[in-house]
Amino acid sequence: DTGVSQNPRHKITKRGQNVTFRCDPISEHNRLYWYRQTLGQGPEFLTYFQNEAQLEKSRLLSDRFSAERPKGSFSTLEIQRTEQGDSAMYLCASSEPGTRYVETQYFGPGTRLLVL
Amino acid sequence: LAKTTQPISMDSYEGQEVNITCSHNNIATNDYITWYQQFPSQGPRFIIQGYKTKVTNEVASLFIPADRKSSTLSLPRVSLSDTAVYYCLVGGLYNDMRFGAGTRLTVKP
Predict the structure, then answer these.
(1) Of B44, B49, B101, which has the smallest distance from its Cβ to A41's Cβ?
(2) Is A104 or A79 the better-scoring residue by pLDDT?
(3) Is A20 helix (H, G, I), strand (E, B) or coil?
(4) Chain B residues touching residue A57 (CB < 8 angstroms)
(5) Which of A33, A45, A63, B92 could form a disulfide with A93 if both were Cys (CB 3.0 to 4.6 A apart)?
(6) Could you say which residues from 46 to 105 on chain B have a Cβ atom under 8 Å away from some Cβ of chain A?
(7) Contact (CB, 8 A) for B73 and B84
(8) pLDDT at position A60
(9) Which residue of B has its CA nearest to A93?
């Protein structure tokens, strides 16, 4: 399977703990995105990488959130001092270089986080 | 950013054709229209993308009128497995990829 993979698929943690999620994009894709999705809502953009450079961060990404993409391959999203409001599905997507005006994102299965 | 409006929910029966319309009055010249499908506990899946007129693939058709202020996703002969949330996005590059609440399609037997 050469799709986007995410690990773990599920994570239960206690409030105040740190968690880290991993995303492995499709190998030839140089763009990588993180989204958060809560129940009944569409995905909300969090951050975006082109190769190893983090080019955009949403205001939703508080100081407790940090994302990295070393060497432009896989990416990690860390949440420090988790809060119950962080409970959500965290989605990763990747895209290949497209035209100047459009691209198609391919999503992973997501990591469902529950903060108790 | 072009804002999109689509119905919150739709019901259909197996074998019927389903048309989901998305309004995007403020679409920009360079914007493309993209539809995604999402099943519960899965990430969204790309369905179809277009700029103008009609686009068809093995899964769906996308109709875009000349003024491009709306678009219609057409799913032929739906089955129970097409029950999902369908998102209409207008834009192109990463900073335009804003998902709304989508249209929840329920296909009944």
Answers:
(1) B101
(2) A79
(3) strand
(4) none
(5) A33
(6) 46, 49, 85, 87, 92-95, 97-102
(7) no
(8) 78
(9) B43
Q: Among residues of chain A, what percentage have pLDDT more than 70? A: 94
Token pair of B6 as six digits: 């689509």
Q: How does DSSP assign A28-95, residue by residue?
A: T--EEEEEEE-TTS--EEEEEEETTEEEEE-TTS-TTEEEE-GGGS-EEEEESS--GGG-EEEEEEEE
Average confidence (pLDDT) over A21-50: 92
Q: Which of A102, A3, A93 is nearest to A43 (CA)?
A: A93
DSSP state of B99: -
Q: Shortest CA distance to B21 belongs to which of B62, B73, B61, B68?
A: B73
Across residues B52-66, what is the average pLDDT? 94
Closest CA to B48 of A41, A10, B56: B56
pLDDT of residue B12: 97
Confidence tier at A98 by pLDDT (50, 70, 90):
low
